[in-house]
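Researcher: Quick test of sequence recovery. Tokens follow.
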């Protein structure tokens, strides 16, 4: 059911005021506000909307379209299987939209007409002068025969709750003296396996604290040649050391062929048994837009630096909806910032926006410690390994583990929801400058 909130200007939905030429002339003359529609209420969409509003102020008329009435702080859904209530990670979108003077439409966008500059939204059409697409990614487990039927995933809140129930059953069986085998599986076309690494480490720590770890065998298998392959050799080494310290058996270069009850079969002929199988399926675009340039998985093709859709300079694509090979919240922020700054400069008529610079940053939870990684990336043009650590990264490539990094993750978990609740971008203003300084100091002391 669609919900067009009271903040919307009813006369602007489904109607166009003047021709494109007339509106273009009016914007150049400064007599009309640029109509910007943002599709998606996740990290990329909200960051782009709030930053654009901060930069362009009254020169922009913003509309946010999201199929959900709330923002989900997805990186912290890893705590749900271990007891965190999901509602603590949700921010209703109506209040931030009101504070930011942004029209909010709760509906699903399903078609874009770049020639007429219209978005089809649940049977209605919303006009735009500029469009920001941040509709995210989805999962396609059916690519792997048997995966949907036999594995638990970690993509949605509902799947995280299902995993919580499964871990509860695992714990009860272990307490009764039964032995269990947990197998983690990363298949090809998964675009960011980091959260699954967090859960395997968290599971080990959790089982140790429950005093049943010796009754649960934990095995990890991934198609990648290195653990968290996109983030380079340093993180691969850290993960390998953690696996050895925790007694987790790891297999690299294991490409899944199919899944059977109690057993995963791989293309190299190997088989691995399981009682509980936890996987992160292949990625696809959450919302395909027919007629727009996209790859074979539905991810929209972009100009790297500006995030403009190839061949359509008035459409920007940020976050998981675009074709950048690594899907991650921090990279979505950076893409949203680049797009918003570029678009604000066009609307306001001044400024020199910086292009998207893919320097990933993440803090990987383990319950007893956390691992920080700052990784400058570049595209390779190789479909098998589409990104790599920049050879000239120098001091920007940092990795380190410490219990203190758990504090950094908690601070980020407080800072970001606070910013979004008040319709402020993550990467702007004095609060972010202070947060960034703290992260830089910590990384110098606790990473190398």
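Model:
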């Amino acid at each position: 059911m669609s919900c067009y909130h009271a903040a919307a200007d009813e006369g602007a939905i489904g109607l166009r005021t003047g021709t494109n030429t007339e509106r273009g002339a009016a914007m150049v003359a400064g007599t009309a506000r640029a109509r910007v529609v943002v599709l998606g209420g996740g990290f990329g969409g909200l960051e782009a909307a709030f930053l654009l509003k901060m930069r362009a102020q009254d020169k922009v008329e913003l509309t946010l379209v999201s199929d959900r009435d709330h923002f989900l702080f997805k990186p912290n859904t890893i705590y749900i299987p271990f007891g965190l209530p999901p509602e603590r990670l949700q921010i209703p979108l109506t209040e931030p939209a009101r504070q930011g003077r942004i029209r909010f439409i709760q509906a699903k966008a399903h078609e874009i007409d770049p020639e007429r500059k219209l978005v089809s939204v649940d049977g209605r059409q919303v006009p735009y002068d500029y469009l920001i697409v941040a509709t995210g990614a989805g999962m396609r487990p059916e690519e792997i025969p048997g995966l949907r039927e036999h594995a638990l995933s970690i993509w949605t809140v509902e799947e995280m709750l299902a995993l919580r129930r499964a871990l509860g059953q695992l714990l009860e069986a272990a307490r009764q003296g039964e032995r269990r085998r947990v197998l983690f599986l990363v298949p090809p076309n998964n675009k960011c396996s980091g959260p699954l690494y967090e859960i395997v480490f968290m599971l080990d720590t959790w089982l140790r604290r429950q005093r049943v770890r010796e009754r649960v065998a934990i095995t990890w298998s991934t198609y990648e040649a290195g653990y968290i392959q996109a983030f380079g050799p340093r993180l691969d080494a850290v993960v390998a050391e953690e696996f050895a310290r925790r007694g987790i058996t790891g297999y690299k270069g294991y490409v899944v062929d199919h899944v059977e009850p109690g057993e995963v079969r791989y293309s190299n002929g190997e088989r691995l048994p399981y009682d509980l199988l936890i996987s992160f399926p292949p990625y696809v675009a959450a919302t395909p837009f027919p007629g727009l340039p996209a790859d074979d998985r539905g991810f929209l093709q972009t100009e790297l630096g500006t995030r403009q859709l190839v061949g359509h300079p008035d459409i920007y694509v940020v976050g998981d909806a675009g074709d950048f090979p690594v899907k991650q919240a921090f990279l979505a922020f950076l893409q949203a910032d680049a797009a918003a700054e570029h678009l604000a400069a066009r609307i306001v008529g001044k400024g020199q926006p910086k292009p998207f610079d893919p320097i990933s940053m993440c803090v990987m939870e383990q319950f007893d410690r956390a691992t920080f990684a700052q990784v400058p990336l570049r595209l390779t043009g190789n479909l098998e390994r589409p990104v790599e650590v920049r050879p000239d990264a120098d001091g920007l490539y940092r990795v380190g583990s410490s219990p203190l990094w758990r504090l950094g993750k908690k601070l980020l978990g407080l800072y970001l929801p606070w910013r979004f609740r008040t319709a402020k971008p993550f990467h702007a203003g004095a609060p972010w400058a202070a947060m960034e300084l703290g992260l830089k100091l910590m990384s110098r002391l606790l990473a190398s």
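The first strand starts at residue 3 and ends at 4.
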